[in-house]
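Re: the 210-residue chain
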Amino acid sequence: MPKLTQVKETKRGRYALFFDGEFAFSLDADTFAMAGLHTGDELEEWQIHDLQTKSDTRKAVDKAMDLLALRDHAAGELYQKLCRSFDPHSAAAAVAKMQELNLLDDAGFARRRAAELLRKRKSRRAILDDLHAKGIDRGAAAEAVEALFAQSEEENPELANARALVERHYAAKLAQGKWQQVAAALARRGFSHSVIRQALADAETEETEA
């Protein structure tokens, strides 16, 4: 069995473990204390693996805390980010810990994110795609968007956004007769054909009346 030949405290307050004279990995202080390790201990391979898993999970939890301190995350988004640095098991355990601490709220996140994107003149499809990319499932994303649109002061908030974009960003192109280019630009932003037609028709009406 591998023998713990050296334990060395690092500058970051972790404990580097050396088995049979070679560095294996480091443990956080809490995991090291709970393990009750001493130089000369012989450990089974599964015990070593278990220690490393516990340490990785602790690091993943700390990373999750750091990410949530910066901004809200959906559970799926947080998991995806943690998987960039940790194995799936550690990432999932860290997400579960955040949920246990009530630091994750997918429904609330979806509502806030959708409202933010609507204020930025995003289309319904763009908002739904963004929420899904952030780890919100399609059903929850649709529910958040429908609730947001129902609460909006605008009769059709997506049309209002398209009109605002036409007025602020595409008025010059329309004045040059480049209606198709503007329609294509709005389509790339995710606006539906019916919304685009109405927004352009409204712009044409205003131009005629001006």
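The chain has a mean pLDDT of 92.
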